[in-house]
Design brief:
The complex is a heterotrimer. Chain B is of the alpha+beta class. Helix content of chain B is 43%, strand content 15%. In chain B, helix 2 (46-58) links the parallel strand 1 and strand 2. In chain B, helix 17 runs antiparallel to helix 18 (414-429). Chain C has two domains: 2-82, no CATH class; 89-260 and 267-293, MetI-like fold (Orthogonal Bundle). Chain C is built from 16 helices and no strands. Classes of the chains: A mainly alpha, B alpha+beta, C mainly alpha. At the A-C interface, helix 2, helix 4, helix 5, helix 6 and helix 9 of A face helix 1, helix 2, helix 6, helix 7 and helix 8 of C.
């Protein structure tokens, strides 16, 4: 066993610097959080309470409401954003360089502009009285919808906003991946009589599977952790209709000062998402190499 | 023998050193502050920097480290500092928000009763001290007081031909009548586009709450939930009816949209609501320069309900001293906080920052002599009641406000909403 | 090969939709820049003025001989920027952010590519387990980790220094995952060939993997720079002295207690957006294809 480790030492050495930083700044805090989730965290001395925080989480009606809201959000937004990224990247990829740059920039740059501004834009779109959405509905003769402040529509509005926001990161990732696919593969397919769509379906899509897996997992994590953008739109309301898991965790940690309880909920979130991620990695095997 | 002598000498030395340290403490005090009003260079921290320089000059060896913090994130930053056991010495908060009762329970905040003489306390308004008192102990020094008032757009009143309430006082029925008259179609397209009243509902904000107290209810009475009592339900129902039965409030009323609500009152070109309740900071904004300047306003009280007198909700702002291990340092920190909250400083705050002083002597200097609206608002402080004092208040408030949002969206009746809240709140009260 | 009319029309419609969507998604950026040069009393009107007064009215005023009014217009437009830069520490904050973000990007590109190479192409006991542990940690929401990270940073005595911001950024894991997926697609034969030719492991990394992974590296560079540049909450918590504030933190400090000054907000956002746009435009040229097969000799 140790001989194997010595033989493979370059593998360990290459990950070592990263791993040290990772351990100190990521792993240690997470382990702290794990320990705290079995305690009732207090400033002067804490108390071990075993599984009580976890039991409380299971009996917490707000936690389950948050789980339900977050699931409804993730189930739509994750696949939508990955698929939309793939489709848009595929449409942009064959264009010439200047057009590509324009589309890459226009889909990615807004995400860096300012989330505050983006929230303002969407709040204006969904405003009940003077908003763009209801204006268009009015033109079609439809009654205005209380987008952000009715239980029926609040979560749907947030989901709609997420889906309609172009997935800039996904698009540039797919474009980078598609850029590495050798032209020779497409040549061969064309010679074999495949049309554009078949080329896309049989070559591009399978070959970008590694990126697809990455985006699926990262998107899943992101959807389950959604908080800021919902906060800015609806503050979690009306009632608790748009309260998400991280929002609940945040309130418990920073408003109620119960870090142990918050830690327990985070551990539950972690368990659920890591299982999903492992399932996804089995379904989308990224064993792909580009051969000339 | 020599050994015992050595130990004795060391002990004497230690005592001597610590005694002198006790006499004249030196070291660093960490003080957090947030942006206040700017000077010519628009430095929004110039006031605190000036005070720090003065204090350091008169206390050689004492250094004050200023940590500039934005208002919105003050709570988070402080929570992390407290949980990380690296808290500052002085923080500009009250004890109902970023620092709340559960912090007090855990002993993270210093009680100041031993450091204030009865004469000093006498100069503060009882409401201000109340806001900083928990279980009989004082946990901070108040700098300013806040109260909620009703702001009336008199141009809108004029346009509708409605008389404002005399001297800003009105009964509920008068209020409803006027609100209805202020709701009309101003551009003749058949759609009502101006409304009499609006407000918002958001956890941690209490503009709408005096309406719920109007008939005599309180959220917590003798440690029992008080908003599902007949007085509470009748009061909440009245406000709900204002929206759904009398149609005097727009659909946005009761949502969580703070910015939109304020724009509907104050923003030039977007005004369509005549009456809104706001905390007193809004008075400074609508009387100051800029797009929110309202040329013609009146400050009014909340309407009078069954209780027979107007009600408002008040609070205080000021300084809190965090737990100190070194008692010699504590003395100096207390001195610093008192230095920052003198009568002159509270007067300065009142005239420059638009807050009501917490000291009677500062108020006696008449800082609002030329600001009639602030003066009128100051008169309402006597009707102000503080928020309940429960350690779990933040969670209780969250539940109540969540139900209120649903009630005002028309999705639940008042009874349903408050009874649903009651079940959860019983647990929190134990 | 004759193409059907219908499919031509279909393609045209698809691209039309694409262009419309692209233009619409530029609206927030456009809003930022135009609001920052709006006249003080026209800032954040709803609905917003599509073309700021300074652009639409300057020429007409000059042509009509109204020189003063025209100059006043320009003055008004620059008011937000003037407010922004009056705060003398703006330059310092900008530099702090620049320093940290450039270091973070360089550091991440180096460390993550090394680690990704290892995870993608090397065999060693525990490889997959370690990898999934790293990825798994991404699922813990950052808010929960604020407190323990704060304690770690205090223990290491780096509170109040740029290290407190830089080191946690260097420990982010998503880059390793991202680059691993890119490097998976690089044919192993190239590595074998290089090894047979006697190249050291580091040589293989530097001469084979890095050039071939350029698109992935460029993407990661963009993502890292923007994430570092925009990061707000953690720098706010970890830094106490105002001279070490990063740009987003400093900009927030200019906002009052109760009401948002939109012109100032947008001017700050505009200034903050410029470096990110520059980084994006410079890095994205590396997305070109053709750097791959056939060009690398062992």
């Amino acid at each position: 066993m140790f001989k194997r480790i010595w033989k493979a030492r370059s593998g360990y050495l290459f990950i070592l610097p990263k791993f040290i930083l990772f351990t100190v700044f990521v792993l240690v805090p997470i382990v702290w959080s794990l320990f705290v989730s079995f305690q009732e965290y207090r400033i002067f001395g804490t108390e071990w309470v075993g599984l009580r925080n976890f039991i409380d989480a299971f009996q917490d009606d707000l936690f389950w409401q948050a789980v339900s809201n977050t699931l409804r959000y993730a189930v739509v937004v994750t696949p939508a954003s990955v698929i939309i990224a793939l489709v848009l990247a595929s449409l942009i990829h064959p264009l010439r360089a200047g057009a590509q740059t324009f589309f890459r920039a226009s889909f990615y740059l807004p995400t860096v502009a300012s989330s505050v501004v983006i929230a303002m834009v969407w709040r204006w779109i969904f405003q009940t009285r003077f908003g763009l959405a209801n204006y268009f509905l009015g033109l079609l003769g439809v009654e205005p919808i209380n987008w952000l402040h009715s239980s029926a529509w609040a979560l749907k509005s947030v989901i709609l906003m997420a889906v309609l926001t172009p997935p800039g990161t996904g698009i540039i990732l797919y474009l980078a991946a598609m850029g590495s696919i050798p032209d020779s593969l497409y040549e061969a397919a064309r010679i074999d009589g495949a049309n554009r769509f078949m080329q896309w379906w049989k070559i591009t899509v399978p070959l970008v599977r590694p990126t697809t897996l990455y985006l699926l997992i990262v998107s899943t994590i992101g959807s389950f952790q959604v908080f800021d953008r919902v906060m800015m739109m609806t503050q979690g309301g009306p009632g608790y209709a748009t309260t998400t898991i991280v929002h609940r965790i945040y309130n418990v940690a920073f408003r109620d000062f119960q870090f142990g309880y918050a830690g327990a909920m985070s551990m539950l979130l972690f368990a659920a998402v890591i299982i999903l991620a492992l399932i996804q990695s089995k379904l989308v095997s990224s064993d792909v190499e580009y051969k000339g | 023998m020599t050994r015992k002598l050595n130990i004795f000498l060391v002990l004497v030395l230690v005592l001597a050193v610590s005694a002198s340290a006790f006499a004249n403490w030196t070291g660093t005090i960490t003080l957090w502050d947030c942006p206040r009003w700017g000077n010519e260079e628009d430095d929004k921290f110039h006031w605190i920097k000036g005070k720090i320089a003065e204090f350091e000059a008169s206390h050689p060896g004492v250094k004050i480290e200023l940590v500039e913090t934005p208002w919105a994130e003050l709570g988070e930053k402080l929570s992390v500092a407290i949980a990380g056991r690296a808290w500052p010495d002085v923080v500009p908060v009250d004890i109902s928000g970023a620092i709340n009762r559960s912090h007090l329970e855990q002993g993270v905040v210093e009680a100041l009763d031993d450091y204030m003489t009865p004469e000093e306390l006498e100069d503060f308004f009882p409401g201000a001290l109340e806001a900083y008192t928990y279980k009989g102990k004082l946990y901070g020094i108040p700098m300013s007081m806040t109260v909620h008032v009703m702001i009336l757009n008199l141009d809108h009143f004029e346009e509708a031909g409605v008389e404002p309430p005399e001297n800003g006082r009105w009964t509920w029925d008068e209020f409803v009548e006027k609100a209805k008259a202020l709701t009309f179609d101003s551009d003749g397209d058949g759609v009502i586009d101006k409304y009499g009243f609006s407000t918002y509902i958001l956890p941690g904000y209490y503009e709408a709450w005096p309406f719920f107290y109007m008939d005599g209810a309180q959220p917590l009475v003798d440690n029992k939930f008080g908003f599902n009592t007949p007085e509470a339900i009748s009061a909440i129902q009245k406000l709900v009816d204002l929206k759904f039965v009398h149609g005097a409030a727009p659909i946005e009323m009761g949502s969580s949209d703070v910015g939109g609500t304020f724009r509907a009152l104050a923003r030039e070109g977007e005004r369509f609501v005549a009456i809104q309740p706001w905390n007193t900071w809004a008075i400074a904004t609508v009387t100051g320069e800029g797009v929110n300047h309202m040329p013609n306003i009146m400050i009014a009280e909340y309407p009078i309900g069954e209780l027979g007198r107007p009600v408002s909700i008040g609070g205080a702002g000021g300084w809190v001293i965090m737990h100190q291990r070194d008692r010699a340092k504590m003395d100096v920190v207390v001195e610093l906080v008192k230095f920052l909250s003198t009568t002159e400083e509270q007067y300065t705050f009142a005239t420059n920052y638009g807050t009501f002083p917490a000291r009677k002597s500062a108020e006696a200097m008449d800082p609002f002599a030329d600001q009639p609206h602030m003066a009128r608002a100051a008169q309402m402080v006597e009707f102000a009641v503080p928020l309940p004092e429960h350690p779990n208040w933040a969670q209780i408030d969250d539940r109540i406000q969540a139900e209120l949002q649903l009630i005002f969206a028309g999705e639940k009746t008042v009874e349903q909403g408050m009874n649903d809240a009651a079940a959860q709140i019983e647990r929190l009260l134990r | 090969m004759k193409r059907l009319r219908a499919s031509n029309v279909g393609i045209a419609i698809i691209y039309l939709v694409l262009i419309v969507w692209a233009i619409i998604s530029l609206i927030p950026l456009y809003w930022v820049f135009t609001t920052s040069i709006q006249q003080p009393d026209e800032v954040a009107i709803m609905p917003p003025k599509l073309i700021p007064s300074v652009i639409s009215r300057y020429l007409p005023l000059r042509l009509a001989g109204e020189k003063e009014a025209a100059t006043a217009l320009v003055d008004g437009a620059l008011e937000s920027y003037r407010l922004l830069f009056r705060k003398t520490q703006m330059n310092r904050w900008f530099l702090n952010s620049l320093l940290i973000s450039i270091s973070a990007t360089a550091g991440i590109l180096l460390l993550d590519s090394m680690a990704a190479f290892s995870f993608a192409k090397k065999e060693f006991p525990g490889r997959d387990f370690l990898f999934w542990v790293m990825v798994g940690t991404m699922t813990i929401p950052g808010q929960v980790l604020l407190v323990p990270m704060f304690m770690v940073v205090r223990e290491l005595n780096v509170v109040n220094t740029p290290w407190a911001v830089l080191l946690p950024q260097l420990s982010m894991v998503f880059g390793v995952f991202l680059l691993k997926q890119f490097m998976l697609t690089i044919p192993s034969e190239l590595i074998e060939a290089a090894r047979i030719d006697g190249a050291s492991e580091f040589g293989i990394y530097w001469r084979v993997m890095v050039p071939l992974a350029k698109p992935g590296l460029a993407t990661l560079g963009i993502l890292t720079f923007t994430s570092s540049w925009n990061s707000f909450l953690w720098p706010l918590i970890a830094i106490q002295k105002s001279e070490w504030f990063t740009l987003p933190v400093g900009l927030k400090m200019l906002q009052d207690q109760n009401l948002v000054n939109y012109g100032l907000l947008m001017a700050g956002a505009a200034v903050a957006a410029v470096p990110m746009i520059i980084v994006f435009l410079s890095f994205q040229q590396y997305f070109v294809k053709g750097l791959t097969l056939g060009g690398v000799k062992g």
